[in-house]
Write a structure and sequence with these properties.
Order of helices and strands: HHEEHHHHHEEEHHEEHHHHH
Distance between the termini: 14 Å
Shape: globular
Helix content: 40-55%
Radius of gyration: 19 Å
Oligomer: single chain
């Protein structure tokens, strides 16, 4: 049961005076951005305008096509706006995205473990908020595809169909999937069928056993032998190196394990979320701006504001599951991250469709300090859920 906002924020009023202003600015910006980008499924911006990953000519391009892993967040933003404003116009835009994603089911081979990211904020959100039976069917179909990716030898959900760095992808699992498995928890609860929950917990327990380090940080990618299930090695992935701490991955771990704790009631998941949260908080720079990797050198000083927004939402989720005394320190840090983003890294102009600036997809990537739609989504989610009751997407 989610705590009442007044109880959550009691004693933190001075830290929260900016929240309502931020909420209003988000509503005002999305009012015109949603009109301008209706019909698109954006990931980033080009010359300030949203791109469109729903172009069918790019079906088989993992970097640009309809199967791209972030394609659920634009629809998710619309469902956040439905809850924040009650305006049915956002339902229409969200459902257009939902229908376009049906193409992924037809293609099939282009799908990956990110069916949670794609259909939880779209079809499942639609069903949770409106009861639409077709949306329910889409969500259950996506859940079955995700459950089908489990490797029972190693107890993990296979991430990708192809490896981005050579070799066989059959043994690859990544920390991000902790935010995909809530799709399985939902399906299990919806159908009263424990199979989906069992697969989700199978994966979560493997992550607990093989991804985490003694200090509470976690690896991005772990490779298993797909036949024996034995851990083979760790890959650096989108972080600085194999033994470093990719900040967005720490955010996925905080949020993902907190959500697993909510769905299962298992104390080990809540403890994992707390340990990772404590590690993350201990590494927040004085500026409050989160680097792309906590181990990165001073130069280049890449930021990842999406990581900050994800971690903030995860800290709020964690705080909601603890008593007031234990939860308040996590909530205070979430507010610190969000306020820093609000003051220093939000673009409210009409020259830019996205909101959150200085996001970095990968430390060694070609582009840095770009706009990414999921940065906007998690910033909006965190601000909105602190201002009013919201139905969880996860």
């Amino acid at each position: 049961m989610r705590k009442e906002r007044s109880r959550m924020l009691a004693g933190l009023e001075q830290d929260c005076v900016w929240l309502e202003e931020a909420r209003q600015k988000l509503i005002e910006k999305m009012e015109w951005v949603s009109r301008a980008s209706a019909g698109k499924i954006p990931y980033t911006t080009v010359n300030g305008r949203h791109d469109d990953r729903s172009d069918n000519s790019a079906d088989w391009d993992m970097g640009n096509g309809i199967n791209w892993w972030t394609n659920g967040f634009w629809g998710g933003i619309q469902w956040l706006m439905v809850q924040a404003t009650g305006d049915e116009r956002y339902v229409t835009i969200a459902r257009e995205t939902e229908v376009k994603l049906d193409r992924c089911f037809e293609l099939y081979e282009g799908l990956h473990h990110d069916t949670g990211f794609m259909w939880l904020p779209t079809a499942v959100a639609d069903y949770r908020l409106t009861g639409d039976p077709l949306s329910r069917r889409r969500g259950l179909h996506a859940a079955n595809l995700l459950a089908g990716r489990v490797n029972i030898n190693g107890g993990y959900i296979r991430a990708w169909n192809e490896s981005f760095f050579g070799g066989n992808a059959a043994g690859l699992a990544i920390i991000d999937c902790m935010m995909n498995i809530p799709l399985l928890y939902w399906a299990s609860e919806e159908l009263n069928d424990p199979r989906y929950r069992s697969v989700a917990m199978f994966h979560a327990d493997t992550v607990l056993r093989t991804f985490f380090r003694p200090d509470g940080s976690c690896s991005h990618i772990v490779e298993f032998d797909p036949v024996t299930g034995q851990k083979v090695r760790v890959h650096g992935g989108q972080g600085l190196r194999e033994d470093s701490s990719w900040t967005r991955g720490q955010g996925w771990a905080i949020y993902g394990f907190a959500v697993s704790a909510r769905h299962t009631g298992e104390a080990r998941y809540l403890q994992a979320a707390r340990k990772t949260a404590d590690y993350f908080i201990s590494r927040i720079p004085e500026s409050g701006l989160i680097p792309a990797d906590f181990e990165q050198p001073e130069v280049p000083a890449w930021e990842d504001c999406a990581a900050a927004a994800i971690a903030a939402s995860g800290l709020i989720e964690l705080a909601e599951q603890l008593d007031e005394k234990e939860g308040k320190p996590y909530l205070r840090q979430a507010l610190r991250l969000l306020k820093t983003l609000y003051v220093y890294r939000c673009n409210w102009s009409r020259e830019e469709d996205c909101i959150l600036e200085n996001c970095t997809a990968a430390y060694h990537g070609k582009e840095h300090h770009i706009h990414m739609i999921y940065g906007d989504y998690f910033f909006m989610e965190a601000v909105f859920r602190l201002c009013q009751p919201m139905v969880s997407m996860w």
